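Quick one, tokens below:
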């Protein structure tokens, strides 16, 4: 790939133009996407104009935006050269994490680094790559720390990445079991009013964990592993009295655990296990006057070096862009008091 700086046109004196040449025209077609939708995505997000000229792309815009667009296009082309595809999520990640060439300090089969310092987690069904710097740091800590906290708003990938890391460690033989748990607490609803037996009552609360698992493992394998109890999905209350050894353990929605429940859960950590606690401090559904165990754990455990705390903001939301705007609006209202 060759980049040429062209002199600005007289009627576009405030803008700069860079010409990028791509040696493989087939990969260039994949880079542009169907109906040039990938180029349109970059144009819209970075405020540049991208023109195709044979096996070249001309990027026109302000100096900073043009340089960023060239860097993003180069990174995406490198993905294609490495045999990877380019999807909308990949474009979003390269724009958010452009210029990140820190390959980290991890090694081995579980967490892999590739060109550009990006991180990927291998599962049976897909490769999972962090899309923001906060997610990248979180993933690195998932593999480095025996106890890891992920704290931030909805849509930032806290649980999704934790389950991906758990599946990766399971299929690589690092752990023997995956245990996923949540407090069965919801605003305005009581378990007793739901129809069916205990499993029927609890499963709706656990559904986000099932969804994440099914993203990484074939459905038949998930069902078989659950039947063999090598994967367990259970309410937090079911953890009492157990020692969780050689397991990857995730407590989701931890803001809805009481202080006593949180202490109980944290002390289940056994030999050869990893534990991840995820939660959103802004979505506590506990009764008024009941202290959140997530808040207390954060306050009490922050000074322990071997425990990692990872924080996310609205900027790390990887769902629909409106989700980030909604979170920012609520945060602003809360800040006004």
């Amino acid at each position: 790939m060759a980049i040429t700086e062209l002199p600005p046109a007289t009627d576009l004196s405030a803008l700069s133009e860079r010409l990028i040449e791509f040696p493989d025209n087939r990969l260039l077609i994949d880079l542009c996407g169907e109906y040039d939708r990938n180029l349109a995505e970059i144009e819209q997000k970075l405020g540049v104009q991208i023109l195709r000229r044979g096996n070249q792309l001309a990027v026109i815009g302000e100096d900073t935006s043009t340089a960023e667009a060239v860097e993003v296009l180069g990174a995406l082309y490198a993905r294609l050269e490495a045999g990877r595809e380019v999807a909308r999520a990949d474009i979003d990640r390269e724009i958010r994490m452009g210029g990140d060439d820190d390959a980290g300090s991890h090694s081995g089969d579980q967490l892999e680094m590739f060109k550009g310092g990006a991180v990927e987690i291998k599962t049976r069904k897909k490769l999972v790559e962090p899309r923001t710097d906060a997610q990248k740091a979180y993933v690195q800590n998932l593999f480095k720390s025996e106890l890891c906290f992920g704290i931030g708003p909805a849509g930032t990938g806290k649980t999704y990445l934790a389950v991906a890391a758990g599946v990766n460690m399971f299929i690589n033989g690092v752990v023997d079991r995956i245990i996923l748990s949540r407090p069965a607490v919801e605003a305005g609803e009581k378990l007793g009013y739901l129809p069916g037996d205990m499993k029927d009552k609890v499963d709706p609360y656990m559904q986000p964990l099932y969804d994440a698992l099914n993203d990484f493992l074939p459905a038949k394998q998930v069902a078989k592993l659950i039947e063999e109890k090598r994967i367990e999905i259970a309410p937090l209350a079911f953890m009492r009295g157990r020692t969780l050894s050689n397991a990857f353990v995730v407590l989701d929605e931890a803001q809805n655990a009481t202080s006593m429940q949180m202490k109980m859960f944290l002390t289940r950590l056994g030999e050869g296990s990893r534990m991840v606690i995820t939660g959103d401090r802004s979505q506590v559904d506990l009764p008024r006057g009941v202290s959140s165990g997530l808040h207390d754990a954060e306050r009490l455990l922050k000074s322990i070096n071997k425990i990692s705390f990872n924080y996310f903001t609205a900027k790390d939301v990887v769902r629909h862009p409106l989700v980030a705007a909604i979170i920012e609006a609520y945060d602003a209202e809360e800040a006004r008091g």
